[in-house]
Amino acid sequence: LKGIFQAVYTAGVVLPKPVGTCRYWHRSLNPRKLIEVKFSHLSRNMTMQRTMKLYRLPESPKTSGLRPMTRKDVPAVHRLLLEYLSQFHLAPVMSPEEVEHWLLPQESIIDTYLVVSSGGKVTDFLSFYTLPSTIMNHPVHRSLKAAYSFYNVHTTTTLLDLMSDALILAKSKGFDVFNALDLMENKTFLEKLKFGIGDGNLQYYLYNWKCPSMGSEKVGLVLQ
């Protein structure tokens, strides 16, 4: 359409009328720091030591063939992503150039890891982006490093195993917390991987597009 602007956006406030409502969930990676800066708190009858043990993760991922994405992987990742997103009602249709822009790893911006079969075929991938926050008036901690789940595609690895590895990788890279929305298939792993539900909703809106309302599991577009 020429001269007609269209948009998709999100907000915490409810306006007329959201096409979808998602909720953030949070998974502690560095529980001591999160409690010290009051991002989270000790649960009743829980000590710091027991909390640290509860959220402890393995040292290394368990999925074999896991490696960072490179530029030559763009065509394979593009194919996987388009096929996977076709099952959702609200999803982007990315070009190979957009896949490269959004998913090719950049230090302190975006991390993408692929699962590659013994025959060299890319079968799955996980991704998360970085969003640090400044901590004000704390004697020790200056910033909070948060990882946000982005696009995750599974064909041979279970989503649960893929996201378990995402947590391990994020922890090894110094992230304090891993955040994820309850969209796409994310509800299948959130509680199992010890995510805690957040206290606010993220409303999805369309401008100059007609679209019926949908459940969060039908939303295939990740926005902040």
UniProtKB/TrEMBL annotation:
Reactions it catalyzes: N-terminal glycyl-[protein] + tetradecanoyl-CoA = N-tetradecanoylglycyl-[protein] + CoA + H(+)
Keywords assigned: Acyltransferase, Phosphoprotein, Transferase
GO MF entry, a single one: glycylpeptide N-tetradecanoyltransferase activity
Transferase found in the keyword field: yes
Cellular component GO terms held in the UniProt record: cytosol; membrane
UniProt-listed Pfam families: NMT_C (PF02799)
Membrane topology (UniProt): Peripheral membrane protein
Transmembrane segments: none
EC assignment: 2.3.1.97
Compartments, as annotated in UniProt: Cytoplasm, Cytosol; Membrane
InterPro entries: Acyl_CoA_acyltransferase, NMT, NMT_C, NMT_CS
Domain called Glycylpeptide N-tetradecanoyltransferase C-terminal: residue spans: 36-215
Gene3D superfamilies: 3.40.630.170
Main localization, broad class: cytoplasm
Function: Adds a myristoyl group to the N-terminal glycine residue of certain cellular proteins.
Family label: Belongs to the NMT family.
Protein name per Swiss-Prot or TrEMBL: Glycylpeptide N-tetradecanoyltransferase
Gene: NMT1
